[in-house]
Amino acid sequence: MRPRHYLSIIVLLFLTAGSFSIVSAADLPDIHILATGGTIAGTAENASELGHYQAGNLSVATLISSVPEMSTYARVTGEQICNLNSDEITPMIWLRLANRVNELLKSPDVDGVVITHGTDTLEETAYFLNLAVKSDKPVVITGAMRPATAISADGPLNLLNAVILAGSHDAAGKGVLILLNGEINGARDTTKTNTEMVETFRSPDFGLFGYMDNEVPKFYRESLKLHTSGTDFDVSSLKSLPKVDIVLLYPGADQTAIDAFVANSTEGLVVASMGNGGYQAEVRSALLDVVNKGIPVVISSRTGTGVCTPEDPEFIPADTLTPQKARVLLMLALTRTNNQDEIAEMFREY
Ligand code: ASP
User: Is residue 123 lining ligand 1, measured as CB closer than 6 Å?
Assistant: First the structure.
């Protein structure tokens, strides 16, 4: 071997030793996983079955042991919050999650939290936590579109990426992040857009925050709306959340659903209006009666994008929030106040 080659090998050994010392175990972040179920913990009869499977079937211990690569990037621990299809997630579980995340992130021993969740209602849990978590440390929520038993299951890579992201300084202070399919999205503006495809989470109005470029998070933007430590919400002593319901409008809709929700003790209504705050005369007068009873009414749009600006000042505009996100904010707003103007201000800020 020529001397130049010896030199290359020595340089290579030096660089390799250097890179090992950079990621020594002592330097790794401590990431805690809170598992709630979903397809990421789902199993089917066979590997080609992508649609019919049992969601929420694998434990957090199994999820962690199936992605040993995580130990290169973080010291990972985990706990099971519940193990459900996310269609069964309730506001009580949002409260439990928020309080547990807040407790964990207060500890100097935890650098970030990852939540595994079914994708159907992941966006609501993410936005709730975005408003109720009181820490700037990273909180990343992930899931999967294919069960763990599937050919090309997306869960393991999503979990690995979520752990890397939760351990990254760049993810701090950006609110709760949604990570699937190598795409980093913000909790406020992101929604599930496809029933089956892995690229389902989209922020149609504003776009994604960034990408996982192999194992490196790369950010290009963040939300200007207040979140986490910047909000007024404190859920630590709440036993439940106010009951808020959504009224979907369509040609021929009448006041039946509105009356039923009021009779069933709703504390706030979100209307998924047609276009930019469009509602029938009959619906309008039923909604004004609701407001006169002291029950706030928020007008959002069923279009999925754009600012919603209803003409009637008695109603609260949802800004760009989808009906399901507006419901989350109204539930939290009602824990602070019943005042129409104060709630409207929260819809402008958050
Ligand atoms: N139904 C499942 C759930 O939301 C879907 C998924 O996780 O992708 O739990």
Answer: no
